[in-house]
Amino acid sequence: MSTVLKAKDLCKTYIVNKRQNNVLKNVSFSIEEGEMTAIMGPSGSGKSTLLYAVSGMDGITAGEVSFCGRNIARLGEKELADLRLDEMGFIFQQMYMLKNLTVLDNIVLPACQSKKNKETRRETLKRGEELMRRLGIIDIADNDITEVSGGQLQRACICRSMINNPKIIFADEPTGALNRTSSDEVMNELARLNADGTTVMLVTHDSKVAAKCTRVLYIVDGNIEGEYNLGRCEAPSQMRERERSLNNWLLELGW
Amino acid sequence: MYLSILKKDLKRKRTMNIVLLLFIILAVTFVSSGFNNVITVINGTDYYLDKAEIGDYLIITMGDNAGGNIASVLDGAGCAESYKIESCIFGSQDSVTKIDGTKVETKNTAIFQSVEDAKMNYFDTDNQPVTEVGEGEVVICGKFIQNNGFKAGDYIRVKLGDVQADLKIAGRAKDAVLGSDMMGNTRFLLNKKDYEKFLADETINAHYRGEIAYIETNDTKELSSIISDIPGIAFSGARSLIEITYVMEMIVAFVVLILSLCLIIVSFVVLRFSIGFTIAEEYREIGVMKAIGLKNRKIRGLYITKYLLMAIAGGIMGFFAGIPFGNMLIKSVSENMVLGNNGGFLVNIISTIGTIAVILLFAYGCTGRVKKLTPIDAIRSGQTGERFKKKSFFRIGRVKARPSFFMAVNDILSAPKRFMTVIVSFFICTLLVLMIVNTTATMNSSKLISTLGTKEGSDLYITDVESSMRMMNTGDREAVEKELKRIADELAGEGMPCDVGVDIQYKYKLTSKGKNFSVTCAQSVNIGADEYEYYEGDAPENENELAITPRISEMLNVKIGDTVTVDFGTEKLDCIITGYFQSMNSLGEIVRFSDDAPTEMAFVSGILQNQINFTDNPSDEEILNRKERIIELYGNEDVFTAAEYCVDCVSVVPTMMAVQLLLLGITLIVVVLVTVLVERSFISDERSQIAILKAIGFKTGDIVKWHTARFGIAALIAAVLAAALSIPMTELCISPIFGMMGASSVDFNIDPLRIFLFYPAVIFGVTSLTAWLTSLYTKTIKTSEATNIE
After folding, report:
1. Less packed terminus of chain A by CB within 10 Å, N or C?
2. Phi, psi (degrees; rounded to nearest 5) at B551
3. Does B128 touch chain A (CB under 8 A)?
4. What's the pLDDT score for residue B388?
């Protein structure tokens, strides 16, 4: 297994009202290929900031972030955009999509934009439809984004994040705006993608969601306070036990 | 709390508020100056002619022993309630030179008068009456000073017969009767003593003298019948005819009027958009305010207060900006006229208050949505999910275009209403520009040649007032033919074999249905009546046949096949009307005789330009060479091609060109401002989408392309629509104006390159450039905002 993402002495500081706010303080960790890592921690601990810093969506103040051997801190705006387009996938808490496009068009948009994609539009559309079929939302392909439920839309966002076959998917509280049923469906899809080989890094408040991951990083005040290896979930029956052990660990850390 | 929310709103949405304020200022500027101009233009000529006191009817006589003829007829005419007669001297173009003898440009015949004996009012450039001129000085009407590069204090030399005087230019005056571009005679106002020095010369008194009568009457038809007995009438017409002579100036004035109306429409369209848009964007705030218990009335009041404050601030600024802006627009018209309205600033104030009221009305209407918005809207980002209609039939899989372009087209197809503001504003402005371009191009071409009393297709036209006056004074048609033969022989001797013809105008008494009319009649020498254009019927062939214009048809109440009696002096002939032609000469009040009609030079009122037709079929290039050689040969600059001759006759062309540029400038300013406002509004609305696109790998350049393409497409739609409609709209709107001048059916000169390519390309280019520059603002939107969207 090779290292997909590696952060070393990562610092992120914001200046708010002339006051320095150190959100990330010398954070170091790495994510191996095929891992599904959850970042947990209290509100304001720096979870989302960490996700955006390592995904190149936000700049860093100090340290190094290496993605597949490339230091992304040194990449320019255009190179970062190409990296996000071709090698990373993103899922957000709010299911933002372009409102004038249908669900399918929203999904295939990154593929149409990618210069690495040599497919014809028809082939790309076919692939988009296959992804939608896999996630059980093929019925809403031609729908407007305002005509579908939150759960369906989030699964469409997963499809969009997958369309360029990324090396890693970053998800920021992907189930935060969903009810329990939709949340389970979305997490099952992410787990299935991970089982198929896609590396996933997600931020969550929900231990039930985190229990589906292979590893959990716990962050407090910009520092990684602990790391918990859950290993791969082999059967649904293991979930209750995984949740219980994770909750115990979190309680120990003051969750 | 109320004030605190307002203060925060104004601060937080600074850019949008500034842009909105800018548009309120513009709207008030356009509306206040526009309405003022509309009232001024509608009052236009009536206001000017009233101030000048020109009466209801006007007669100008000239020629041998013209003095006293008018009074003797008017004294016995019951329909003439009162009249004023002033004496004048007619001079050729050569009678005025620079002090060193160099030639100057005097349009048509020069007229000299004593200002003390003037019976109508003249006005200086500040619109103050000119009542006196110092001895040895001259005040000159029309554009003479400007056209010859003179300034006050310079000297001109006037030589009439054997009398010569050097006169100091004291200034310029506006002449209501002869100052229009269509009349175009230059009047020189002298001190009485200087004028009498000229009149003391017997030759001048006998041959160059004339009279101008301003008559008050309530029966112009009866009067025009009576005055047909006055000999030597050079011009006669009712006040309404003088008003028509300002039609060229009024074209410009109406352009200003239409421009003002367009700007008013654009202002309101844009204001409606921006107010509606900004309020629609407030769903979150409105939802939150409702959630904390604020009532609809209070929330609505908050926004109305905000718009009231902005409208008042913008209104005050717009009011002050409207005064110089309005003056700038009307300046091109008021150069030749005294324009004004009795309302003055009151119109501006009322317009400003009206615009503020309309803004509040828009705000009130738009805030009606407050009732519908609920706290849930704040949570659901304004989406209710209640939409069952597909937005666009355009699919990314069906096109090969790049996503940026696809999204641009798709946005317009999905929400065309959103882009309507851009399309409507650009369409209105572009259409107006193109209509003026078509009109100017027509005036600037040879398309009007057949309406100017000349044969279509002559190679060159020579204006030589002195030669015309010499021919007029011979009293012999044979002498005219000899003079033309002399010119033809002279040119043939120079290797330019040609026929030279000329159109002679007479004043004859015509009787129709028991009524007499003094009418201008045309007959040519060396050009057959059948060589002119008739749009209905045929050319007159026999001596008892004539062709008429639609205006004569209306005036005499006759049509093709009817008979009118013409008193040729030596005999009276019942002439049959054989056809209709159009002419802007004598403002369309003209008839054309056959070549055999028994005309007499004693009835001549004018001789038009010599028309040269080369007999050796030279190329266009050779014609231009010959033109230069003729200029050199006769030392006369007034040798024209057909197009140049039209421009010389329709002298409003330079003004129209200036107005065209002004219009294009204002259109481009509107285009830039609308684009900036709407694009900034769109960016503000689509912040979340832009952040998401960036997050999934779109570069700023792609976003900029997407946004620029939308405006480019909208501008292209507007420009294409405007270009397509410009031809029928020009015919619909401008033809009646030419019709007033006597040209009832004008074939417009359409330059397809300019109409379908150049101007649409300029509008498209400026819109795209502005949209591109404005959309660069999206660079400031960060990918991280995808998760931090309000």
Report:
1. N
2. -65, -40
3. no
4. 47
B309 and B428 part of one domain: no
Q: What is the pLDDT of residue B464?
A: 72
One domain for residues B272 and B325 = yes
Cβ of A98 within 8 Å of Cβ of B407? The answer is: yes
Closest residue, chain A, to B692 (C-alpha): A96
Q: Cβ separation of A113 and B411 shorter than 8 Å?
A: no
Instruction: Report, as ranges of residue numbers, the positions in chain B whose pLDDT lies below 50.
Output: 385-388, 789-790
What does the pLDDT read at residue A230?
87
Contact between A114 and B697 using a beta-carbon 8 Å cutoff = yes
d(CA B554, CA B519): 13
Cross-chain residue pair B784–A57, CB shorter than 8 Å: yes
Predicted pLDDT of residue B378? 56
Q: Does residue A173 sit within a domain? A: no
pTM over 0.80: no
Count how many domains chain A has: 1
Is residue B692 in a domain? yes
**B698 interfacial to chain A (CB closer than 8 Å):** yes
| Residue B414 forms contact with A (CB below 8 Å) | yes
| B383 contact residues in A (CB cutoff 8 A) | 146
Residue A246 is assigned to a structural domain of this protein: yes
Q: Which residue of B has its CA nearest to A78?
A: B699
Domain span holding position B426: 401-448+651-790
Q: Do A58 and B782 count as a contact with CB atoms less than 8 A apart?
A: yes
Segment holding B413, helix H or strand E:
helix B403-414
B294: three-class secondary structure by DSSP = coil
Closest by alpha carbon to A107, among A167, A57, A153?
A153
B297 and B165 inside one domain: no
Comparing C-alpha atoms, which of B687, B671, B670, B688 is closest to residue B15?
B687
